[in-house]
Amino acid sequence: MAIQPERARKMKITTMILCASVLTALAVPVHAAGDPRAGKTKTSMCAGCHGIPGWRTAYPAVYSVPKLGGQHAEYMVSALKAYKSGERNHPSMVGIAASLSEQDMEDLAAYYASSYTGESN
Fold it and tell me: What's the pTM value of the predicted model, to 2 decimals?
């Protein structure tokens, strides 16, 4: 049985509106639970490596240090937790992450996610 042309048009419009609504909901940026202002006060331990454009560490191996400004907050929190748990292994980062509380991680991530400073390395 064929769908009547007017009914088919309404179904098509309804489907398009539903799809657009879902895509709009998914496009809303998710913000970290941290406080960017508090995170800014905790950046001194990060700036020594991550604040120098083009910086490469020499220990434990030559490694290009990524910029943090503009990075996704959720990714940064996940990475810091992985360093703290030992899942990721970089001596400097393991030591720094070990000193951070979960709130510190959230605050730092919120600050760096809101502070894009140019192209990433």
Answer: 0.66
